[in-house]
Amino acid sequence: MDPSCAIARNGVAFAASIHDQPFPDGKTDSTLAVYRSVDGGRTWQQSSIGIDTRSLDRAYLTVDDTKGPVRNRVYVHGYFARRTPPPAVAFYQSSDAGQTFRSVQAKEAKTFSNSWYFPANGVVSDDGTFFALVAELDNTKNNMSSGTDATTAVSSADAVLSFFLSDGEGETLELAGRITDVYYDRRVPDLSMPALAIDRSAGPFHGRIYAVWPDARYDRRTQILLSYSNDEGRTWAAPGIVSDDSATLKTNDRPNNFMPMVAVNSDGVVGISWYDRRDNPDNVGYWVRFSASLDGGETWLPSVRVSTSPHLASDDTRKNSGDTAGLAADADGVFHPVWIDNRSGIPQMWTATVKVQARPHRR
């Protein structure tokens, strides 16, 4: 479960996932497995992980694909889903192109006395600095349910977005700071992770880091929010709403939009995809929508539907179709969202291509 993949500049491909494994004490727990392929995916070899990964969850795999001094270094981060010791952000790195991994350290954000973590993907800057975004939740304010109306939404901040970084050698993992307080909705129909992207283009917003997440602070419904940093995460802009359904809603409509993903293409265009419910009166089904920013996240083009069929409500207990989706930009600047819908009668993975013709504004 929780699959993740990446490709290094030298063409080596990596895949990571979490596996349930029985232990001598009779208990079964999740552990990390990483595989690498040097022949285009024809064959795979398992990496050696010489440290305990027991209770690891939501692992993300990141490869340094820059031209920097530690290019091809491989990172895996997630969190330890445990009670004793307390849950913590976990960070592993490989300095031998993913053949072996070791643990750098586990970090507790410690904002709340009873914390839980929703990590996002990692990104790497031009100089090899690794960045990760983690939502730390107050587990005493858990509103986990299958409800879709305003009465079951969160009514106050119950989480913070924390920003971690590791130096170019991957020897440390430091809590760099807090982005914002968050109204994090854990209702099953709305549950999803945050997402992170960095602008490595030659455009006017080079180096800007973008964070997106689902947030219920406005009108007690979940919307897609974005913030950005120009100084490697030390300070962040005030959050702004990206999902653009407000002007079309009828009185008392409160669709819960969720599952945001963000990517920046080679021109510096910022793209965001999400699961959108403006056209789903049951507030459980959804369509996938996409919007782009040409000015570094200040303003957004009108969103468009990406999916050609909706995901419809079903008896599936995972009404959010899982906790993550995908969005990537290829070398030509084309965006590729990846999502789950059940148009065929069962949940399946779908993708599409999205081209943004306009160029970013110059600063």
Indicate the overall shape. globular
Instruction: Write down the overall mean pLDDT.
Output: 91
Could you say what the CATH topology of the largest domain is called? Neuraminidase
Number of helices: 0
> Rg to the nearest angstrom?
20 Å
Please describe the biggest sheet, giving its number of strands, its sense, and whether it closes into a barrel.
Answer: 5 strands, mixed
Tell me the structural class.
mainly beta
Number of strands: 24
- Order of strands in the sheet with the most strands? 5-9-8-7-6
Instruction: Report the CATH C-level class of the largest domain.
Output: Mainly Beta
Amino- and carboxy-terminal Cα gap: 43 Å
Total tally of structural domains: 2
Instruction: Name the helix and strand elements from N-terminus to C-terminus, one letter apiece.
Output: EEEEEEEEEEEEEEEEEEEEEEEE
Helix content: under 10%
Can I get a quick summary?
The protein has strands at 4-7, 13-22, 28-37, 45-46, 48-49, 56-63, 74-80, 88-94, 100-107, 115-124, 130-138, 159-166, 174-182, 195-198, 209-215, 223-229, 240-241, 258-264, 270-276, 287-293, 304-305, 326-329, 335-341, 348-351. With 363 residues, the chain is mostly beta strands.
Structural write-up:
With 363 residues, the chain is an all-beta fold. It has two domains: 1-106; 109-363, Neuraminidase. The chain contains no helices and 24 strands. It has strands at residues 4-7, 13-22, 28-37, 45-46, 48-49, 56-63, 74-80, 88-94, 100-107, 115-124, 130-138, 159-166, 174-182, 195-198, 209-215, 223-229, 240-241, 258-264, 270-276, 287-293, 304-305, 326-329, 335-341, 348-351. The strands form six sheets. The protein has a five-stranded mixed beta sheet, with no helix packed on it. Strands 1-2-3-4 form a four-stranded antiparallel beta sheet, with no helix packed on it. Strands 10-11-12-13 form a four-stranded antiparallel beta sheet, with no helix packed on it. A hairpin with a 6-residue loop joins strand 23 (335-341) and strand 24 (348-351). The radius of gyration is 20 Å and the shape is globular. The termini are far apart. The mean pLDDT is 91.
